[in-house]
């Protein structure tokens, strides 16, 4: 098991309050594989430094979790399939 | 012709070694902005005064922040 930090940029058209609940089904993958989600931090709407998919804003979310490498890979794959998610980044803070 | 007096530049000390910060967070844009120029370029080590390892960490953090649109790749501040 490893600790990961996942950052997600969501479509600004979404409602900010519903973001945490809309991410829940994705995080279900982690729980069913024996991992755990420590923290879901919704930063809220933020201006992007440059346009992504013609959008100049995004809703930033940072998720701390512990899971197996393969589980995180699968989570990242599923997130990228969703059209309301502009970008994701998985980082292992300990390595750096 | 007398030679100009030799310059004694003040030796800068790495900010991160001073503050004992071991992990440079890519989410801390306020800190990282100190290490980019107004054009968005990463400042050189001779400008920032960082040590080798921390300059490398800062560069990686800036690049990660750029990927997540927290910092610009370029900015036309001119």
TrEMBL record, chain B:
Protein origin, superkingdom: Bacteria
Keyword rRNA-binding found: yes
Role noted for this protein: Binds as a heterodimer with protein bS6 to the central domain of the 16S rRNA, where it helps stabilize the platform of the 30S subunit.
Species of origin: Actinomadura alba
Keywords recorded for this protein, A-Z: Ribonucleoprotein, Ribosomal protein, RNA-binding, rRNA-binding
Pfam families, A to Z: Ribosomal_S18
Entry protein name: Small ribosomal subunit protein bS18
SUPFAM superfamilies, alphabetized: Ribosomal protein S18
Known partners and oligomeric status: Part of the 30S ribosomal subunit. Forms a tight heterodimer with protein bS6.
Protein family membership: Belongs to the bacterial ribosomal protein bS18 family.
Keyword RNA-binding attributed: yes
Entry's Gene Ontology cellular component terms: ribosome
Name of the gene: rpsR
């Amino acid at each position: 098991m490893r600790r990961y930090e996942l950052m997600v940029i969501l479509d600004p058209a979404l409602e900010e309050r519903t973001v945490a609940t809309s991410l829940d089904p994705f995080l279900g993958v982690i729980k069913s594989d024996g991992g755990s989600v420590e923290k879901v931090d919704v930063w809220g709407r933020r201006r992007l430094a440059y346009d992504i998919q013609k959008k100049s804003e995004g809703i930033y979310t940072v998720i701390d979790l512990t899971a197996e490498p393969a589980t995180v890979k699968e989570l990242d794959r599923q997130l990228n399939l969703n059209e309301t998610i502009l970008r994701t980044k998985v980082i292992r803070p300990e390595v750096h | 012709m007398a030679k100009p007096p030799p310059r004694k530049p003040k030796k800068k000390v790495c900010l991160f070694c001073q503050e004992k910060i071991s992990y440079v967070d890519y989410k801390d844009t306020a800190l990282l902005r100190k290490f980019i120029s107004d054009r968005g370029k990463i400042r050189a080590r001779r400008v920032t005064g960082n040590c080798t390892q921390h300059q490398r960490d800062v560069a990686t953090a800036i690049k990660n922040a750029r990927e997540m649109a927290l910092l610009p790749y370029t900015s036309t501040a001119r």
